[in-house]
């Protein structure tokens, strides 16, 4: 929503493809950190809102989706 991308534009693409190499690496690093935790990862970030055309401070919460065996 903040990046102005639809679900169809996101699914099947890597973070690097969507946001470029630098931001993609940063997104992947926080994804991996969230997957290693057994609780939500919450942090603050600053993004350029495509819809508003201005910088916004946001809180992001990433949660690993696990199956019944915890994987």
Short description:
This protein has 71 residues and is an alpha+beta fold.
How are the SSEs placed, and which strands pair?
Elements lengths: L6 H4 L4 H5 L1 H16 L4 E9 L4 E9 L9
Antiparallel strand pairs: 1-2
Would you give an account of this structure?
By secondary structure, the protein is of the alpha+beta class. Helix content is 35%, strand content 25%. It has helices at residues 7-10, 15-19, 21-36, and strands at 41-49, 54-62. A two-stranded antiparallel ribbon has the order 1-2. A hairpin with a 4-residue loop joins strand 1 and strand 2. The longest helix is centred in the middle third of the chain and has 16 residues, at 21-36. The chain is globular. The model has no long low-confidence stretch (mean pLDDT 89).
Helix and strand sequence: HHHEE
Q: Give the termini separation.
A: 28 Å
Task: Assign an overall shape.
Answer: globular
Low-confidence segments: none
Mean pLDDT: 89
Instruction: Kindly name the structural category.
Output: alpha+beta
> Strand order within the widest sheet?
1-2
The main pleated sheet reads as: 2 strands, antiparallel
Strand content: 25-35%
Q: With helices defined by DSSP (H or I, 4 residues minimum), what is the helix count? A: 3
Strands, count: 2
């Amino acid at each position: 929503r903040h990046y102005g991308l639809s679900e169809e534009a996101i699914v099947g693409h890597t973070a690097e493809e969507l946001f470029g190499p630098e931001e993609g690496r940063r997104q992947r690093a926080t994804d991996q950190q969230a997957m290693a935790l057994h609780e939500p990862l919450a942090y603050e970030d600053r993004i350029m809102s495509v819809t508003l055309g201005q910088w916004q401070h946001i809180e992001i919460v990433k949660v690993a989706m696990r199956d019944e065996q915890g994987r």
